[in-house]
Amino acid sequence: MTTHHTHGQSTDEDDKAAFEEFKSLVNMTAHQLEKWLATEASRAVGQKDGDAESVGHKSGRRIIELLGAKKSDLQSDDYAHMRKVTGYVKRHLAQRPHGDIEHTKWRYSLMNWGHDPLK
Question: Which PANTHER family match (predicted)?
């Protein structure tokens, strides 16, 4: 049986893969992420789309919701956000700077997206 993708629709298999990848790359708990997002360092990094809040910071708040959601309650836009998160984290990890990363904007940006490279 072949699976045909209708525009904007993903299959259960695609969603399952997105969910698994999201779970493996997001290594911060909802509580850790919530505490992190409340820090100055968290708010100081990331692209702002003419908004006071950066894209990554906004994403972090959405990730907290996703981490707390029941799998059965997830909608297609939730899976789309999971794909956005995993894409961002993977691209960003490939740009790891040399040296100590503990206090870098690179790490802080990743943490806004739920991934702490020091974990």
Answer: DNA-BINDING PROTEIN, POSSIBLE DNA-BINDING PROTEIN
Rounded distance between C-alpha atoms, residue 74 and residue 94, angstroms = 29
* pTM of structure: 0.88
Amino acid at 118: L
- Long-range CB contacts for residues 30-38, cutoff 8 Å, separation at least 24: 30/63, 30/64, 30/67, 30/68, 32/116, 33/60, 33/63, 33/64, 33/67, 33/111, 33/114, 34/64, 36/60, 36/111, 36/112, 37/61, 37/64, 37/112
Q: Read off the amino acid at residue 104.
A: T
As given in the structure block, the two tokens for residue 82 are 């999971």
- pLDDT tens sequence across 101-114: 999 999 999 999 99
**pLDDT, tens digit (0-9, with 9 covering 90-100), for 49-58:** 777 889 899 9
